[in-house]
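Sorry, explain these tokens?

___
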Amino acid sequence: MILLTDTQRDRLLANGRDRDQDHIPVVKFFNPFGAGVWLATELDLDGDIMFGLADIGYPELGSWSLNELRSIRLPFGMGIERDLLFTGDFPISVWAGAARETGSIRDAERLLYRSGRLSGGTRPDTEPPRS
């Protein structure tokens, strides 16, 4: 799977040049087999170091390597995936607050979705779509 589209990369780079803002997440990555969710808001000019909210057991704001995400090998030849339906809708501070309150990004997404604060375009990656 392509982890970043050209449009997403351009938005992340633009956000990275304007670091003093509370950016809306551009892309969500997740481990389809277990723990690991990343909401990226920025990308450094080097094209590797991302900033956003990461949750590999506890949600925290910080930086990580896109190349390291790409190199993770999971069962059945799979890797980290990009949530194709994700729409950030809120600044990263809202996501971070909800994730700290609920204990994880996945639970924060459920909370924000069920409360009507997220648009219908996003679906938690661990629940089937609703009819």
